[in-house]
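Posting for a labmate who doesn't have an account.
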Amino acid sequence: MSIEDVQALRLQGKNREAWTALTALTGSASANATAATADKPEYAYERSILNYYVGIPKEDALRDFMISYSRFKNIDYNNLLFYVIPFTFSYTTLPVKGIPDFLPTSTSILPLSNKILLNVRYVNYRIQENGSYLMSEGGVLTNAHLRTRNFFLFTDPSFSTFSTPEEILPSVEPFHQTHIHGIEDIRLFTKGAKVYFSGTTCEYSHNGSIQEIQGTYDIDAKKLTELIPMHSPTNSHVEKNWIPLNRAYDDESRFIYSWYPLQIGRIIHGHFHLEYESQTPYFFRHVRGSSALVYYENFLYTMVHCVIETCPRKYYHMLVKLDMANTIVSYTVPYYFVKNHIEYTLGIYIADSQLTCIASQNDCDPIIVRIPMNSLSWI
């Protein structure tokens, strides 16, 4: 038997026979044969397909897929969707309600001295079955402006009691007239005792395109102040998912700009200056965002995501562990939360061996998700 025979059997739909032939070649009946010195790119490619058809346990097949993808760089990324499994978790609904035309969605988390600050994004759009967006105006879905509003509230470290949400508004008028209104995907962080934010916007960007900004999150005044538009280091027309490092260890305006390679830079007068770069696994070419970093047991953690462009899109999430020198120590396999579709999280909180995050479902219906850290599969 040769690898060509394996491929021929698979293409004929004889998957069990192909699997038997493949294991005879590799000398292993295990899905996770990537550690074997005899493993080859063509073997890994066949496993990335056959693992699904012959019923290899999904978690084993997923680990094999992730390791082989980065090692051999020849596997179809879209096959990931056949292996991703849900987090092991419990959840409750975030107790916030919609308001006329607007629904709550992505929520940022920031621990303060004795409470936790949440920023809840409210949106007027509804994602349709074909992936398009329609906006609610007066209760009618139209092609009106896409609008975002932001509300803050407080909770306790167990996420069991909540204050009444209050709206927080930009302190100045928009810099540009655009179709997309407001500041999206706010991430909260601190510098000393002061709360700051970063977010995505057209109205307040430096050029009227989708770009990142940062500013002060003034809870007492209920205002977003001292807005600083941030310029793309690559002159990209769209910038999203810059991750602030400040929250983790009081750093001065540094952001993770990309994950492949890992690029970290300082913001000076609104411009990104690269200060650190390191290589990351090949799979990280698909990784974006998502959450600000948290410090837990001498390491930094952040939730990231990758997307498969089906209709609707599928979002998968990985927890990444870094040391204090910004080196990736390990990362989990990708997971989804409740449904294998559009799910998003902006903030995480880790305490007492439990990961807590707030995930939106199809850009609405945010839930509080509690995940045991020991349930995660790490690479």
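Reply:
Got it, the structure tokens are right above this. Residues 244 and 255 are 4 Å apart (CA to CA).
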